[in-house]
Amino acid sequence: MSDPRITSSIFTRGAVDLSALRTAAPSPARPATPAQSGPPTGLPGAPGGGAAVIDVTEATFQTEVLERSLETPVIVDFWAEWCEPCKQLSPVLERLAAEGGGAWMLAKVDVDANPRIAQMFRVQGIPMVYAVVGGQPIDAFSGVVPEAQLRQWISAVLKAGGVAVAQPEDPRLDEADDALMTGDLDAAEAAYRKILAESPADAAAEAGLAQVGLARRVGGTDPRAALAAADDAPDDVDAQLLAADVEVLSGLAEQAYTRLVGLVRRTAGDERERVRQHLVSLFTVAGPDDPAVASARRALASALF
Q: Is 86 a catalytic residue?
């Protein structure tokens, strides 16, 4: 699955020939089935009173997908009643469309009832999902993917379509954070690792996992004693690393970074690498957007090279 903003798509403009569909005579969209967008699924309405999920046929494709995508990104879900993987993916897409509140539309195409659309989109297997923006498909994927990855893909599609959408809170992170705050470090670690297994680049989960490590390292430590020991032994690596951990937990992260950058300058070989890795782990606790981290990274680079 690619990011349509930065990755060369498998499609170029005009690679999917939709001209025949554009000439199809428009007619009212047939109502979505209750299992897709009716009241039983609880899907909210989109702007203008339309449903967040619509059932599309060849006769309505021009209006409901191509023309609609000129203003709102449309994600097309190719499915069939007999397709078991479709029954896993489609409900997730429908729920995310509901959460989107009209920022994007989900158009469902039954490939058995609409083989011509599937043929023009070169659908060779289902489930197959296309993103249509500005009247053209910009990206696609096939098969069932984890929800976290699906959210990232939809977010990229929206950005490609110029839609600014606030990211919903991730309940998985809430669960992990709650475990961390209550001191259940094993549960917190397991939860963060599960998120990272599904979304390897999740910065919040990386920061949470780093916080678990930090909490374990300082468990049972007397902060004042740790700082005093570090002051008495400025070249004792273990004492300096523990003091830096205490400072980060005490809200003195910049002081901790300065301490370890100085230690990098005074050490060599394996000890220097150990200090560097520890400092990087503290950067991860803060997150990549922290300005103090950016400054400390520059200082670290200067100390190393």
A: yes
Beta-carbon contacts of residue 29 (< 8 Å; ≥ 6 apart): 54, 55, 56, 57, 60, 63, 64
d(CA 278, CA 244) in angstroms, rounded, equals 9
CA 37 to chain centre: 25
- pLDDT, position 262: 94
What percentage of the chain reaches a pLDDT higher than 70? 81
Q: 9, 2 in Cβ contact below 8 A?
A: yes
Residue ranges of E strands in the chain: 53-55, 74-79, 105-110, 128-133, 136-142
Q: Can you state the percent helix, strand and coil of the chain, rounding each to 5?
A: 55, 10, 35
Q: Give the phi and the psi of residue 152 in degrees, each rounded to 5.
A: -65, -40
Q: Which of 83, 97, 131, 214 is catalytic?
A: 83
Beta bridge mates, 108:
55, 77
Active site residue 83: yes
Q: Which is catalytic among the residues 32, 86, 264, 275?
A: 86
Question: How far is Cα 293 from Cα 101, in angstroms, rounded to an integer?
Answer: 36
CB contact at 8 A, 241 and 260: yes
Q: Which of 128-132, 201-205, 262-266 has the lowest mean pLDDT?
A: 201-205
The two structure tokens encoding residue 148: 């976290």
Query: How big is the chain, counted in residues?
Result: 305
Instruction: Quickly state the pLDDT bin for 58 (edges 50, 70, 90).
Output: very high
